[in-house]
């Protein structure tokens, strides 16, 4: 398949298509997505095999829903950001990713009974607003802003709180490190 470089505004250097992130952002997505996926896979393996501490937190329905919906978002989001855009597969998996992220955000509200919030709950409105913007910009055909919102959502609303999930006193941290 042949690809053509579009000229930039100055006419001298090839411009990146408006639906692609730059090489630095792609590298960050690839590295972060891979490391987080590996860490989650090892943590789950250790828990399932009985190696990790079992404190029973996952028995809380809100935590169980949160974990089950957020874990596939890490590799799926990286795949969507790094693969070919605009295909039927991209659109279908993108809708699934957004739905999983919305359910993840809503579920975390109920982890503390829906009334006792901590600082990490700031990612709930960030995720919900991000999801709205991702869908809105895709539907209106504003692909440049769609890409910007989805990239920010992946790195900001998924990777940053994901790092905190692996602290030693948090569930994934206990499973990975315990």
Helices and strands, in order, run as: EEHHHHHHH
Average pLDDT confidence is: 88
Gyration radius (Cα, Å) is 18 Å
**In one word, what is the shape?**
globular
Structural class: mainly alpha
Show unreliable segments. 1-6
Distance between the termini: 48 Å
Main-sheet strand order equals: 1-2
Biggest β-sheet, characterized? 2 strands, antiparallel
Structure description:
With 178 residues, the chain is mostly helical. The chain has one domain (21-177). 65% of the residues lie in helices and 2% in strands. It contains seven helices and two strands. The protein has helices at residues 23-48, 61-70, 73-82, 88-109, 123-139, 143-165, 171-177, and strands spanning 6-7, 14-15. Strands 1-2 form a two-stranded antiparallel sheet. A hairpin with a 6-residue loop joins strand 1 and strand 2. Helix 1 runs parallel beside helix 6 (143-165), helix 1 (23-48) packs across helix 7 and helix 3 (73-82) runs antiparallel to helix 6. The chain starts with 5 loop residues before the first strand and ends with a helix. 26% of the residues are buried. Mean pLDDT is 88; it is low at 1-6.
Short description:
The protein has 178 residues and is mainly alpha-helical. It has helices at 23-48, 61-70, 73-82, 88-109, 123-139, 143-165, 171-177, and strands at 6-7, 14-15. The longest helix has 26 residues, at 23-48.
């Amino acid at each position: 398949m042949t690809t053509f470089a579009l000229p930039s505004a100055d006419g001298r250097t090839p411009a990146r298509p408006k639906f692609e992130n730059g090489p630095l952002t792609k590298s960050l997505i690839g590295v972060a997505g891979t490391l987080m996926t590996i860490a989650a896979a090892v943590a789950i393996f250790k828990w399932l095999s009985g190696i990790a501490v079992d404190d029973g937190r996952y028995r809380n329905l809100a935590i169980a829903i949160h974990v089950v919906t957020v874990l596939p978002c890490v590799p799926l989001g990286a795949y969507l950001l790094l693969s070919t855009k605009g295909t039927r597969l991209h659109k279908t998996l993108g809708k699934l990713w957004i739905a999983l992220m919305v359910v993840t955000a809503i579920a975390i509200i109920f982890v503390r009974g829906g009334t006792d919030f901590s600082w990490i709950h700031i990612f709930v409105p960030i995720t919900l607003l991000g999801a709205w913007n991702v869908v809105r910009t895709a539907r209106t055909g504003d692909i440049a802003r769609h890409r910007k919102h989805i990239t920010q959502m992946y790195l900001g609303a998924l990777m940053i709180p994901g790092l905190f999930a692996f602290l030693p006193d948090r569930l994934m941290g206990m499973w990975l490190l315990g």
